[in-house]
Amino acid sequence: MARLTRLLLSKPGVEKIAVIMNIVSNTRVDLVARGVVKGVIEAGYAPSEKIAIFRIPGAWEAEGTKILKSYGVECLDRSVSLDQAAQRALAKVKV
Predict the structure, then answer these.
(1) Residue 19: beta bridge partners?
(2) Nearest to 35 by CA among 12, 61, 1
(3) What would the pLDDT profile of 25-35 be if each residue is shown by its tens digit?
(4) Would you give the distance in Å from CA 38 to the centre of its chain?
(5) pTM (whole model) above 0.85
(6) Beta strand pairing call for 51-55 and 17-20
C-alpha cells in the first residue's frame, strides 16, 4: 500500500487520493490505513492534505479509523454509499 500510494502521488496532476472500497470481508482496514499513511508521509506530504476520503469496510475497521483520524483524514463508514463517498472526495478536489 505504501509503494502504491507513493507511486500515485508521484504522477503529475495527482493532488489527492481517495481510498474507497465496497468489500466487506477480512480486509484488514488498519493495515491498509497504515500503508496509505506511510506512503503519503514517505512522499513528503501530510496525510490530511493528500487523502481526500478513506472508506473501506472490513476487519479491524475501528482501529483503521482511529489511525486515520489521528492524522486528520476523513473516514467514512459503511453507512455512506460508494457514490456518496466519491462525491465527497470530488468536492475536496479542485476540478
Answers:
(1) 54
(2) 1
(3) 788 999 999 99
(4) 11
(5) yes
(6) parallel
